[in-house]
Amino acid sequence: MPRPDDRKPGQLRLLSFKRKYTRSAPGSVLVKMGRTTVLCTCCVEPKVPDFLVGKGKGWLTAEYGMLPGSTATRKPRDKGGKVDGRGVEIQRLIGRSLRAVVDLAKLGERTLWLDCDVLEADGGTRTASINGAFVALIDALAAQKSALGSPAAVVTGSVAAVSVGLCDGAACLDLDYAEDRDAEVDLNLVMTGDGRFIEVQGAGEEATFTRDQLDRLVTLGQTGIEQITAAQKTALGPLWPF
Fold first, then answer.
1. How confident is the model at residue 130 (pLDDT cuts 50, 70, 90)?
2. pLDDT grade, residue 80 (50/70/90)?
3. DSSP 8-class letter at 104
4. Tens digit of pLDDT for each residue in 50-61?
5. Helix, strand or coil for residue 168?
6. What pLDDT does residue 81 have?
7. What are the C-alpha distances in Å from 8 to residues 13, 81, 130, 136, 174?
8. Dist. CA 135–CA 133, nearest whole Å
9. Phi and psi at residue 187, in whole multiples of 5°?
10. Cα-to-chain-centroid distance, residue 231
C-alpha cells in the first residue's frame, strides 16, 4: 500500500534543524520531521538535585509537553496536580537518552535542563524531541566553553532516534500519525551515531511479530539513525564535537 505522503518504505520525512530559534536559552532548536514540529531548549542551572549535592558531578534531566494547539483536538494543559502519564514516560526517555552520552562528572555541580515542547504533532514527537534535544545540548555546552571546555570534553557520542513499524506487513521508516495509528507493530529506536543501542521500544497492536520482522525493523531503523546523525552533523557544522 502507498504511504500517505507517497514516501518509499525506507524514506525519512523531510528533516530540518533551526538553531538559535530563541535568544534566552543557550541551546535552542526548532526541529521538524515532516509536519511534527518541536521546540527544544537546553538551559544550564548552577546547582544539582539534593541527591547529588557535594558529590562533584552534574545532572541532566528533561521535560516534555504538547501545547494545546499541537493536535486536531485541543490538548488540555497539565494543571492542578493532574499529570499526563504519556508525557512523563516520554520525558524520562529523553533524559535517559541524553544522559547515555554525557559524562556527568565533567559538568561539576550543574544541571542541564532539556525542555521539549511540541508545537505540532503528526507522529514521532518523542523521536523528534530526542533529535532536536541533542543539537540544543551541544549549543548549550558550547556556550559554557570557558567553564567546561569544548562539548567534546563532556559528550561521548551523538544521539538520534527514529520510529519504524509494520504497515500492512511492510517495514516502514519514520511513521507519521496515520501510519502510527494503524501499524500492526510500532517500534522506537534510540542509538548513538556510532551504532550503539540506547533504547528499543516495540510492541504489537492486536498483532504479533517474528524475530525476522524485528530484525528487519531494527536494520531499517539503523539506516534512518545514520541519516539523522548526518543531518545533526550538518546543522552543527564546526560545533560537531566528534
1. very high
2. low
3. G
4. 999 999 899 999
5. coil
6. 65
7. 10, 44, 24, 30, 11
8. 5
9. -140, 135
10. 14
Half-sphere exposure (Cβ direction) of 105: Cα atoms closer than 13 Å: 1
Amino acid occupying residue 143: A
| Residue bearing cell 543557550 | 26
In this predicted structure, which of 69-78, 155-164, 168-177 has the lowest mean pLDDT? 69-78
Reported in sequence order, the residue ranges of 104-230 that DSSP labels E, i.e. its strands, are 111-120, 159-167, 170-173, 185-192, 197-204
Pull the grid cell for residue 19.
Answer: 538553531
25 within 8 A of 5, measured Cβ to Cβ: no
Rounded Cα–Cα distance for residues 63 and 50 (Å) = 18
Give backbone dihedrals phi and psi of 127, rounded to 5 degrees, phi first.
Answer: -70, -40
pLDDT digits (tens, 9 = 90+) for 133-147: 999 999 999 999 999
Tell which phi-psi region holds residue 152, choosing left (phi > 0), alpha (psi between -120 and 50) or beta: alpha
What's the whole-model pTM score? Answer: 0.95
Cα separation, 238 vs 242, whole angstroms: 10
Strands 185-192 and 159-167: antiparallel
CA-to-CA distance for 169 and 119, rounded, in angstroms?
A: 31
Cell (9 digits) for 122: 503528526
* Predicted pLDDT at 100: 97
Q: Give the end-to-end CA distance of the chain in Å, rounded to a whole number.
A: 40
Nearest to 182 by CA among 201, 205, 214: 205
Place of cell 524485528: 214
